[in-house]
Automatic annotation (TrEMBL):
It holds the Pfam family CM_2. Coiled coil: none annotated. Its EC number is 5.4.99.5. GO terms for biological process: chorismate metabolic process. One of its GO terms (molecular function) is chorismate mutase activity. Signal peptide: none annotated. This is chorismate mutase.
């Protein structure tokens, strides 16, 4: 019976378990170094947010017992962050308008203690730093916030070198120590990969005065389901809209082509990226 084991016996058992966990971690590290060599030296391409999401979802779905899922996720985020740091020169630029704004916390929580993180006062500085390749990832404010500039407009070109939205933070569920309910988007110069449970961001240029209802119906006629109309920028000639939509959209998705085929009311549509849907509170409570 377990109760007959002495404290010493139990602690020895814990030591053996710790050794086994540690051995596996060292073995995992060797395999990740090999994966890094197979993937090559492009630092941006080392990051695979979709693959990371699949790993975490698989672990959460097989998890049982009393260890909290949020702690499980935190450990694995730290492991993945450490592994990314081994594969190449990966760094993070963070929007931090003022001290304690919470974005730094979100970045550390997601990328762990190893990756270098540099704060910037404006969203524009972060997008430029990532576009130039001086940082691999940028942590951006959510575009529906009224207190931030429309940083997403600078990502609207078609060049494959432009940063794309690659993640939404916090990925590992809301909670204390995760920016107090704050959310952010991560950008990087890489193409998001589908994971089976994703959302995408679409920037649209339309004629002025298009209503939200009309925009919704045009999108759904093209087979696109909007989940959030995040922002609109108005000029006299055109309106620019940022829409979050359900599912993964590749840059040349046939639904995008259908959307612009008629030229009315959407002149131009650019997929700004996408992300694996983060864990919700319910996913993580037993
Ligand atoms: O699968 C990969 O491409 C890896 O580099 C391995 C790994 C991991 O630690 O599992 C590390 C970094 C990537 O972002 C995704 C996963």
């Amino acid at each position: 019976m377990a109760s007959e084991k002495s404290l010493d016996d139990l602690r020895q058992e814990l030591d053996r378990i710790d050794d086994a966990l540690h051995d596996l971690l060292m073995r995992r590290t060797e395999v990740v170094v090999q994966v890094g060599a197979v993937k090559g030296i492009d630092n941006a391409a080392l990051l695979r947010p979709g693959r990371e999401a699949e790993i975490l979802r698989r672990l959460v779905s097989r998890h049982h017992g009393r260890f909290p899922k949020v702690s499980l996720l935190r450990i694995w985020r730290e492991i993945i962050g450490g592994m990314i740091g081994l594969q190449g020169d990966v760094s993070v630029a963070v929007y931090m308008p003022d001290r304690g704004a919470g974005y730094l916390e979100l970045a550390r929580d997601h990328f762990g203690v190893v990756l270098p993180i540099t704060p910037f006062r404006s969203a524009g500085q972060v997008t430029r730093t990532v576009a130039e390749g001086s940082a691999t990832v940028g942590i951006m404010p959510m575009p529906d916030r009224e207190d931030v500039e429309a940083w997403w407009i600078s990502l609207m070109g078609d060049s494959p070198d432009l940063p794309r939205i690659i993640a939404r933070l916090p990925f590992s569920g809301p909670g204390p120590g995760r920016g107090d309910g704050l959310e952010a988007l991560a950008i990087g110069r890489l193409a998001p990969e589908p994971t089976g449970y994703d959302r995408s961001w679409l920037a649209l240029e339309t004629a002025p005065d298009i209503s939200r209802a009309r925009l919704r119906s045009v999108l759904s006629a093209a087979g696109i389901e909007p989940t959030m109309l995040a922002a609109t920028q108005r000029t006299e000639e055109n309106w620019l809209h940022l829409v979050e939509v359900s599912g993964h959209l590749g840059a040349d998705d046939r639904r995008i082509r259908r959307l612009v085929e008629l030229k009315q009311p959407v002149f131009h549509a650019v997929v700004l990226g996408g992300y694996p849907v983060p864990f919700s509170q319910e996913d993580l409570t037993d």
